[in-house]
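hey can u check if this looks right to u? its 147 residues, i copy pasted from the old doc so theres a chance i mangled smth
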Amino acid sequence: DMAERGDRRGWAFGLGLERLAMILFEIPDIRLFWTEDKRFTSQFEEGSITKFEPYSKYPPVFKDIAFWIPEDFVENDFFEMARGIAGDIVERMEMVDEFTNPKKGKTSKCYRITYRSMDRSLTNEEVDALQDELRDRADADLGVEVR
């Protein structure tokens, strides 16, 4: 509930050890630090700095969501909501389309969400359930009108 301060927005920035290691070892995704995949952990030895060698990941699942936005829509609130629902399997969120209907004066945005697990293949059923929950919550909590 925004710490009972819905009238304020805040940002948290940090440069933790993981971020420094990402730069030093050229690791592209912070989520790799929490995997127990030997393809990742076997690449590093104590006292040695080696460039990370990428390996194939599990396939992504792409889902789009489009909705009419209210005037007070805050994109970051939508991103936080999606990550709150799906957690670390949300790999990427990007707006892929935006238009304003001149007759209605309403603006629509379409976002493509990339879901991917670092340690298993996702099923369509589980991603569909997450997407359905996101649609319902965005409608109820953000005041958008899902198309």
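Helices lie at 17-25, 38-41, 75-86, 124-142.
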